[in-house]
Structures are given as C-alpha cells and as structure tokens.
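[Automated response] Your request has been received and processed.

Submitted sequence:
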Amino acid sequence: MTPNTIRIGTRGSQLALWQANWVKSAIEHHAPGVTVSLDIIKTKGDKILDVPLAKVGGKGLFVKEIEEAILDGRIDLAVHSMKDMPADLPAGLAITATPRRENPLDALVAHSCHSLEALPFGAIVGTSSLRRSAQLLHIRPDLHIEPLRGNLDTRLKKLDTTHLDAIVLAAAGLIRLGLSHRITSMLDHETMLPAVGQGALCIESRENDAAIDALLEPLEDPSTRIAVTAERAFLDRLEGGCQVPIAGHAVVADHQVSITGLVSELDGRHIVSAAAAGPCDNAAALGRQLAETLLDRGAGEILERLERNAE
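Generated structure:
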C-alpha cells in the first residue's frame, strides 16, 4: 500500500537540499497522491568545520545521524551524496535507488589561470581531500595545499576573499547548483581520478520496505547502480575512507563495466594504479579483483603505513 506522506532526511547545505528536493519532485511526479516533506538533520561532519575530515573520522561523518533517524522511524528515507557513504551500511538499511549519475569529474576553480598547468609556481590550492591533494602534488609537486572545509558556497567564498589561488571541487555540485560558470577547467581521469561514488546520489531506506521500494523504483538508473557497485566493492576490499588517498571510478558501456582505481602516498610521489573490465553482472567481483591487483602491486604497504601514522 502506497503511503500518503513521505519524510526525507537530508543535511541542510544548499547542495544537500537541492539533491533532496530533486528526489522529492521525482517522487511526487511518479506518485501524484503522495506528499513529501524534508527533515533537515545536522551531522557530525556539519558541526566540525575546523578540522580536516581525515582527522575526525572520515567516511560516515555526514550520514550516521541521518541513518539513525531512518532506523528509529523519524524519517522514511534519506538522500546522500554517494561519495559520503561508507562501504558497509548499518544492519536494516539498504541503498534503495541510485538515480542517473551527474558528471563525476573534479573541477578546478581558479581566479585567473585557465588550467592546472597554468597555475603559477608555488600556487596555493585549497582542498581537504587527501585524494585530491595527493594527485595534485603528483602532477605539480610545487603546489602548496591548504585545508579547505565547509559547504560549496563557503569554499567558493574563501577562494574569492582569501589568498587562495585555486580550489578543487566536485563538478557535480557546481552543475547541480547552476554554478558551471565558476568552473575554470575539468580535471580529466588521467589528471584527477574521482572519488568512489562521486557525482552519484544515494537514496537509502529500511530494508524490505515494499511501499518505499515501489515509490523509488522509477528513480533507479541501472548503469549507475552497476558502476557504483563496482566502485564500492573496490573501496570495501581496501577498507578505505577519507584517511587515505584512494580513488576509483567505473563506467558502463556495451554490457561491460570498466573500473580504474588508485592508492597514493600523501605527497603524491608514489601512486599505485590499475584498471579492470568485465561483464556488468560481475561488477562487485570486478571491483574486489581490482583492489587485489593494487594490493599486490604495493598499495597494501602504503595503506598500512598511513594507518600506522594516523594512530
């Protein structure tokens, strides 16, 4: 039986609200008799803005409180950025729908330079992502990386009002908020491999909730699900989070899924990368296989060293 009202849990940032409102509109379009409301929930990641994510817990910081609200019945579902999702979900919850993915690339936003290569020697680039900083330093070891936290609007304002020469942001957020004009250049996969799940939305709800499952079914994009499944299996095998520079991105074409992944030292001097491809119905196994390849090539030693240093 279709419920009359649905409550969506979301963070309160401008981008999170855009994403939740997009899902709200999609549900109301496919089920005109259903009323959908938004519940804004503040997460630990929203409260701690002066410390890099890697030092306060990494993945899960932006979802835990919202997941608790699903489990105790305060909300019916949640809309997250897929890249914020830990590899393991709490018992009783499931990723119910994965809408069509937006552009997964990272974007350079700079004052005057037209590309990463054109930034002056020793330029100051803002990012709190270890994945981004490691890949930036791999290409441009002369750059100075400065930690940059806050929502998308806050980070853009810091670029406009401080000494930063450039910042790196997910292109998807800029596109969704109508800020594509702020993008100086897109960073291709060879320059900056995206985070696992970047550009994709995650709609999470209670397992085996037939009514909610039926409402969300029209929002599912099979190709996005396959790609994200491969990426998240890759991340799960590496047991990675925000504390280590891990990147992984998969694409689906001609009934095949192709995935590229990397693990890097913090300073970007040593990067271990590889790629794999196979049938779409083997996406999870392919992601794990790619992780094993990286581990065999030396990624395991990098991860162990970073874990020791973080303790």
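Summary generated for your ticket: The chain has a mean pLDDT of 92. The CA atoms of residues 17 and 183 lie 21 Å apart.
If you did not submit this request, please reply to this message.
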